[in-house]
Amino acid sequence: MKKTLIVIFFMILFSFATLADLEEGLVVYLNFDQGKVDTVKDMSNSGNNGVVKGNPKWVPGPRAELGSAVEFDGVESYIEVADNDSLDFGEDDVTMMLWIKQDVDQVDYPRPISKMPLFGTDKPGFDVITVGLKQPALRIFYGMSGNTRQEVDGGQLIADGEWHHLVAMKDEEEGKIYIDGNLVGSAPFTPLDISNDYPLIIGANAEPAAHVMFKGVVDEVAVYNRALTEDEILTAMDGKVILAVEPGNKAATLWAEIKR
Ligand SMILES: [Ca+2]
Ligand SMILES: [Ca+2]
After folding, report:
1. Measured in angstroms, how far is the CA atom of residue 61 from the centroid of ligand 1?
2. Which stretch of DSSP H or E encloses residue 21?
3. Which among 155, 203, 209, 215 is least surrounded, fewest beta carbons within 10 Å?
4. What is the pTM of this model?
């Protein structure tokens, strides 16, 4: 019995350590689990709450334990996180991770997540994930200025009506895309200053005057000011980025057992 308890103790310790790692460098975490609200609470320590625009719907997430997700209509709905220093990455690394479900009826270049304006502007930023029907492969646009940009092609249609876990990142001098935990695309990136004064937008590109709307469902949006390791990506995909320890849950019950 004692041995079992010791094993359980270390299992809990290990799981906390893993979760703690996934909080390092986390600057945005919108899990949409509050249900329908006017302001989505950021679960990271950065206070990057998202203001709801239009009339998105709250729907079930990819798995029961991931709670609710948010569905954008592709017309007027999006969520806006105001620009601030925690979202200015300069030449440093950046990771965007989210669950996404979209059907094939997309316009061109919809952005499920973006901190970059459309073409023809002179303010670099990042559109970490770009998907569309005419441009079916998931792509990262990095540091776009005018029509000049660096990009990674994910080479895979994800607008298939199924949930997919996406990670887009700049990792030192490389851009990388992971779909469902697999590295599907990479390309050399020359680091450049991507700090700008645009908001971070979920459900459209970041230029209010020229929104290209995203139609589909999004859940568990996380943004990091660093690159994630493959292990971290798989851990996040299998669970939640931050799992709140609440009374009555499994971990708390195990602690109670050990204390007895
Ligand atoms: Ca959720
Ligand atoms: Ca800024």
Report:
1. 5
2. helix 2-23
3. 209
4. 0.84
